[in-house]
Amino acid sequence: QKQGYDWFMRKEIFEQPRAVADTLLGRLNDRGELVLDEIRMSPETLRRINKIVIVACGTAFYAGLVAKYAIEHWTRIPCEVELASEFRYRDPIIDPMTLVVTISQSGETADTLMAIRHAREQGARVIAICNTNGATIPRESDAVIYTHAGPEIGVASTKGFTTQLIACYLLGLYLAQVRGMKYGDEIAALLQELERMPERMQDMLDAQQQILDLAEELKQEKSFLYLGRHVGYPMALEGALKLKEIAYLHAEGFAAGELKHGPIALVSEGLPMFIVVPPKGRDQLRDKVVSNISEVRARGARTIVLAEGCDDEARAAADVFIELPHVSTLLQPLVAILPLQLFACELATLQGHDVDQPRNLAKSVTVE
Ligand code: F6R
Q1: Which chemical reaction does it catalyze (predicted)?
Q2: How far is the CA of 42 from the centre of ligand 1 (A)?
Q3: Tens digits of per-residue pLDDT, 146-196?
């Protein structure tokens, strides 16, 4: 039931702090180590893995893009991310030392299922990240990490996505732990930060009024661009996808560094552009994104900037400033995506669309 919300999607957006907390539950033992028993692979097997391939579709694919940044940084294992619909048809290089990770909220997506069948035929081990107990994908995988988002009814994925991010982070940190990576201190600090994340997410959601006002202000617009860099790039893609799916508007996400290689030609007077700025710790990257904001603003774009509260330069370059809490770069997606989800939900509502059942879309895509 919608529990007083107008849409399941909005309810599910607001459930995310709880969903993330549930997905994290019971992961730390009293020695401060990460527990991930359901992986069911011995430490020796996990130490022998020499490549990770993540396969997924849609929003789950974007969770996979974030996972690549995190897993490679923490484990130094090369990690590829591929759309499930492309994977099987290009003769991918996989063998028994490859770990294939599939991400699927429903666990029934045909493209993803076919990809794991193909991977297992080549001898790869498959771990599924899934939200649906006993679905086909987890049944056909060697192991499964369940997300504990609870049933996701809205067709556009929200809590499915943030809990997939949590599962990916846990997997990456676990692999780093098992492989004895030198980031021991960093791992412990990140685990503590993850535990505090539901609170940060709640703070973001409590500040929703600004996003509702923004949707009201922009409800006549027909085209939106989203920019991000590093893990902000998949956030730009996911923010744009949400708007396409439920508001049927032209929305495109770009890597901010690609701007001058083409997309900047699209920037015109008044064009709304969401820009996700990395936290201040990653100085070079952040500086570059901040100068991108000035570049597009000089060409007339209306800049909606998501950045840390202490980022005065980003604030100065913003027409609208959406404050993000101070978190580690790799974890920023958990807070940055919330206003983008809420904006899409509100804009579609203002336009009178059926947010939970967007036209032409089904909750699980069981044909290739
Ligand atoms: C977007 C969305 C889709 C799904 C995709 C994969 O909001 O819902 O893009 O993410 O169809 O679905 P699952 O995760 O069930 O495999």
Answers
A1: D-fructose 6-phosphate + L-glutamine = D-glucosamine 6-phosphate + L-glutamate
A2: 31
A3: 999 999 999 999 999 999 999 999 999 999 999 887 666 778 889 999 999
Asked whether 365 lines ligand 1 (CB < 6 A), one says yes
What pLDDT, in 10s, does the model give residues 78-131? 999 999 999 988 888 999 999 999 999 999 999 999 999 999 999 999 999 999
Protein residue closest via CA to atom 13 of ligand 1: 104
Selecting among 219, 244, 288, 363, the annotated active-site residue is 363
DSSP per residue over 105-138, as a string? SSS--HHHHHHHHHHHHTT-EEEEEESSTT-HHH
How many angstroms separate the Cα of 183 from the Cα of each of 176, 188, 257, 356?
Answer: 8, 9, 28, 42
104 in ligand 1 pocket by Cβ < 6 Å?
yes
State phi, psi for 26 to the nearest 5 degrees.
70, 20
64 lines ligand 1 (CB under 6 A): no
Q: Whose CA is nearest to atom 4 of ligand 1?
A: 58
Atom of ligand 1 minimally distant from the CA of 58? 9
State ipTM: 0.98
Cα torsion angle, 181, 185, 186, 187, sign? positive
How many Å apart are CA 23 and CA 44, to the nearest integer?
A: 26
- For residue 156 and ligand 1, the question of a CB distance below 6 A is answered with yes
